[in-house]
Write a structure and sequence with these properties.
With about 1000 residues, this protein is an alpha/beta fold. It has 32 helices and 42 strands.
């Protein structure tokens, strides 16, 4: 007898309740309790409810009524749950948008929703049509109201939200859901996770994906606390773990691919396991689960309740749950339907299949949504009439997923029926990407297929392109990026003359996938003619990237390589058994052929590549520095690099020491530039809400003409600013000059262009002491003075140092033609004397963190300049705001050096267990640690940067004793004549700073880039 359906428990509950009623219960129960926390900001249940009432009233006045779908263009913030709740109170439908979506995607989606009213965050700077009623929301401006709205009660059949999912025709679909389905899901969760106390839930999903609904609204329905993280553009597992530890998170959600990486990371470092001790319940869902990762996680954190979940956006987030147990050590099922939901596995004729056989999964019951907004055709195709009498309701949803039922009645996932795929837990319809690709004028046809990476069960997208003429891959990537979010961009592009077809005329996707394998076989034939070194390197390239299709002439970094995978290539490698392979070699020669041929013949000065340095230092012909005039310059200060370590402190110092308006250029999208700048200052404990009155943040790109700004914005800057502070720079000690040139040289040229407009401007250029070749020349005849200039015939090694030397020379040449300039050369900038917070990206901080992690330090007597960052910022701010005479250069460094041993002794005195070892032993232990750690480990990065013992027995080649080589006459004179607050780091204050910095040294994640 075949079971027609797999039902959950049927539970009858009051048909009048919604999650809004549950939220009101929590407001009455404990109104002062924290409901939402974002960074250092928080809202109580009373404040959240009152602010949502106020916003709901405004929406009501704007004409929003029950059932209206309203776009919410707000990122992670306190305003996000306020906006959602305000619409729920009206019986309206909230539709989350990502402010970082491409403008065209936002415009298309707005048109699809069709709402006259939209809600946007206070920091959203996009321009919307005049026919739209744009309601900007700032939590601080919302004066709360405890009066409920005069509207009819929200009922279970009312719609509550709509989320966009990928669409096969290139048009995303907005899936609508009802209160009934969400209420049913939440009731089950409350029962199933009753042991999780307190319920402190981390919003770990992007707010435009439906798991965010339970993480926010379910938590509020049970009296828990929602922790909303600051939104970043990259995966930062170390930061995520720190946040879980800091906020004592008890519950959250992971997609399997990220969960797999988390399990690997904590397995490599026992200290990280302790930071996750607060976790009690963890939901995993979005794609097939990795049994090995689950077993590893359960071994490390056996007390955490792991639950596998399944269900599409069209069915109230998800409706199949499975609590993982010991019996699941080999295979983990999706589970069984929750209360009041049903599942059937049917064949192509929509007939039930016997247990054990594979069929398509169909869903029914209270969980079902109402289809797609404004698209009845797609709704009819996905929501079919219910022909199964055992399942209540008139509709079934066909998921397109394949599954089978085991003997215990559990459901197992068996793949996709169509061309949808999931990348990092996000459902993607590859047809949408194909549709955008063929819009490019050079593309005749395109097919996108998912490809297994083979590492941590990850996938990537590969695009097959038929083009009428040659089109660079970066051009296609740029085209896609204007219309699609980043997670939908293919990782690999393959060009072909035509696409293979099946017998019925459809594209044969399997043949395309097989062709990738044939490329691998072609590579195998090519192996016969390779040298031994080429074969070894090719194998290392393929292993490091998890990609067997890389050939002799494929660029390592175009195939997804980065500093960590480059290190994997370099570790333990030798070229001709004599020359060690360094990470920097992979950057200089990124293909197997060039690396094998060129690296074998390299000389010690390999980074001094054949470049006409004099040509690099010539100002562009269209830059004309105007003659000095008596016109008064505007007071507005223009700052670049304000999100960096030095730049953030400098911006804070400027905002505190002057009343001038400040414009900061931030490398980001139009929607989050201000927030990124604010977050940078908050990260270093320097943000003050009063700054917002004088600070304007605009997005731009140093590598593009006119800083990537629109002509009117550029012209506005030319007219409005009087001082320019160019602090931005790319700093990556692993990359060469070519990689640094766009940011550090071309960017400086554009800054000079801006400074050379008719209204007089004073350009303050932030340079570095390392523009001189000190580290590799040993003793010098005499100390370098501030009046000395970089020698183009004897530039320092290293791409960063070379790029700064060229950029400084360009600034000086503009100065010689009449531009008002001041150059600030910085040494090794140390932690703040006030907070102890240091630059997590610096080599020194990376070294200190590595010593702490391993419990050892190399015996070395080297010294270095470690001037407190707040002192450096105060000095520069004084120069900028006091109109000092242009033309001078300042060496902004403290008078006394700090020795590495002094720092180690201070750390030991602060209670950090450390013992000294030889540099050789330290490097060996470091290599062992890097090999055993996850690829994002700081130890791996440190190993990539430090010299091998065979090349150096100490660290003097990496960190320079500035006081031994440089004079600071101009700066000392400035200090004597001014009121600059310039505190130095000496033996007396070192212990205080180290004590304050102790936690940040251990926990800060240091990355190179």
């Amino acid at each position: 007898m075949t079971d027609v359906s797999i039902p959950g428990h049927r539970i009858t509950c009051s048909v009048s309740l919604t999650i809004l009623d549950l939220f009101y219960e929590q407001v009455r129960a404990d109104s002062k309790k924290v409901a939402i926390r974002y960074g250092d900001e928080e809202l109580s249940y009373q404040a959240l409810n009152a602010k949502a009432n106020t916003l709901a009233t405004r929406l009501q006045i704007s004409g929003v009524r029950r059932g209206d779908a309203v776009p919410v263009i707000i990122g992670n913030s306190l305003e996000l749950p306020i906006a959602w709740l305000s619409l729920v109170k009206l019986g309206a439908v909230f539709v989350p948008f990502d402010p970082d979506w491409p403008h065209k995607r936002i415009d298309t989606s707005l048109e699809q929703v069709g709402s006259r009213t939209i809600i946007v965050g206070d920091r959203v700077e996009a321009i919307f049509g005049a026919d739209l009623d744009v309601l900007k929301v700032n939590s601080k401006d919302l004066v709360g109201s405890d009066h409920r709205l005069a509207i009819e009660k929200v009922v279970p059949d009312d719609l509550i939200y709509g989320f966009f999912t990928s669409g096969s025709t290139g048009q995303p679909k907005c899936a609508l859901n009802r209160h009934l389905g969400i209420f049913n899901r939440f009731q089950y969760m409350t029962k199933n996770f009753s042991e999780c106390k307190p319920k402190t839930v981390l919003l770990n999903s992007r707010h435009v994906f439906d798991p965010s609904v339970w993480q926010i609204l379910w938590t509020l329905s049970v009296g828990g606390e929602v922790v909303i993280p600051e939104q970043v553009g990259h995966l930062d597992l170390a930061g995520l773990i720190d946040l879980i530890h800091k906020r004592a998170i008890t519950m959250t959600d992971f997609v399997p691919s990220i969960f797999n990486a988390l399990a690997e990371l904590i397995d490599s470092d026992p200290l990280l396991v302790k930071k996750l001790s607060s976790l009690q319940c963890l939901l995993i869902g979005g794609e097939a689960i990795n049994v090995k990762a689950v077993n590893k996680f359960r071994r490390l954190l056996p007390h955490v309740h792991l639950t596998n979940t399944y269900g599409p956006t069209e069915a109230s987030i998800g409706m199949v749950f499975h609590d993982i147990c010991e019996e699941d050590s080999v295979d983990i099922p999706l589970g069984s339907p929750i209360d009041n939901t049903y599942l059937a596995i049917l064949d192509e004729q929509l007939r039930p299949v016997p247990p054990g056989q594979i069929g398509e999964i169909f869903i029914g019951g209270d969980c079902l949504g109402c289809g797609y907004l404004g698209d009845p055709e797609k709704t009819r195709a996905a929501f079919i009439p219910n022909h199964i009498s055992e399942i209540p309701g008139q509709t079934l949803y066909r998921t397109g997923d394949l599954g089978r039922q085991d003997k215990q009645g559990k459901i197992h996932f068996c793949g996709r029926l169509d061309n949808q795929t999931k990348i990092n837990g996000v459902r993607i319809e590859v047809g949408e990407i194909e549709n955008v690709l063929v819009r490019h004028e050079s593309v005749n046809d395109a097919v996108v297929v998912p490809v297994e990476l083979g590492a941590l069960d990850r996938k990537k997208l590969c695009a097959f392109i038929v083009s009428q003429n040659s089109v660079p891959v970066d051009v296609l990537k740029s085209h896609l990026a204007t219309l699609l979010p980043e997670y939908m961009l293919p990782s690999e592009f393959v060009f072909c003359s035509s696409l293979p077809l099946t017998s019925n005329g459809k594209v044969d996707r399997q043949t395309l996938i097989n062709s990738l394998k044939s490329r691998q076989e072609t590579g195998a034939e090519e192996l016969e003619s390779m040298s031994t070194v080429e074969k070894e390197l090719l194998n290392k390239f393929r292993c490091a990237l998890g990609n067997d299709r890389i050939g002799l002439d494929d660029n390592f970094f175009e195939f997804g390589g980065d500093s960590l995978s480059a290190l994997e290539v370099a570790l333990g490698s030798k070229l001709n058994d004599k020359v060690d392979l360094e990470v920097s070699d992979v950057y200089v020669w990124p293909t197997v052929r060039t690396l094998a041929n060129s690296a074998l013949q390299r000389v010690q000065a390999e980074s001094k590549i054949d470049i006409d340095w004099e040509q690099e230092c010539r100002l562009a012909n269209d830059i004309r520095v105007p003659s000095r005039s008596n016109r008064t310059s505007p007071e507005t200060i223009f700052v670049t690099g304000a999100t960096g370590f030095v730049g953030a402190h400098l911006l804070s110092a400027l905002l505190q020491s002057s009343s001038s308006p400040i414009i900061a250029l931030v490398r980001n999208g139009y929607t989050s530039a201000f927030e990124r700048c604010r977050s940078a200052l908050a990260r270093y404990a320097m943000w003050d809400d009063t700054f917002a009155q004088r600070l304007k943040v605009i997005p731009g790109d140093l590598t593009k003409p006119n800083l990537g700004l629109e002509p009117n914005r550029w012209q506005e800057l030319e007219r409005s600013i009087g001082s320019i502070v160019h602090c931005a720079a790319m700093v990556d000690l692993l990359r060469g000059y070519a990689q640094h040139r766009p940011h550090n040289v071309i960017g400086t040229v554009e800054i000079i262009r801006l400074a050379s407009s008719q209204i007089p401007k004073h350009l303050h250029y932030v340079s570095t002491l390392s523009v001189f070749d000190i580290a590799h020349n040993g003793q010098t005849p005499e100390l370098i003075k501030e009046t000395d200039v970089p020698d183009l015939a004897n530039l320092p090694l290293g791409g960063y140092q070379q790029s700064k030397s060229i950029a400084e020379t360009l600034v000086r040449r503009a100065g010689s033609e009449g531009l008002a300039i001041t150059i600030h050369r910085l040494g090794e900038v140390g932690p703040s004397s006030k907070t102890g917070l240091s630059n997590s990206k610096s080599l020194l901080n990376l070294l200190l963190a590595g010593c702490v992690q391993m419990g050892i330090y190399p015996t070395s007597s080297f010294c270095f300049d470690w001037t407190p960052v707040d002192s450096v910022a105060n000095a520069m701010a004084y120069c900028i705001t006091h109109s000092i005479e242009p033309g001078k250069t300042f060496h902004l460094m403290q008078q006394r050096s700090i020795s590495f041993l002094q720092v180690m002794e201070a750390m030991i005195a602060a209670g950090i267990p450390l013992r000294d070892v030889s540099y050789s032993e330290f490097w060996t232990r470091l290599e062992e640690g890097a090999r055993s750690h996850h690829s994002s480990s700081d130890l791996t990065l440190l190993l990539a940067l430090l010299p091998r013992p065979s090349k150096s027995n100490n660290l003097t080649a990496m960190l320079v004793d500035a006081q031994r080589f440089y004079r600071r006459d101009n700066f000392e004179q400035l200090l004597r004549k001014s009121s600059i607050c310039f505190s130095e780091l000496d033996e007396r204050t070192l212990s205080e700073v180290v004590s304050r910095a102790q936690s940040s040294v251990v926990s800060e994640s240091a990355v190179v880039n």
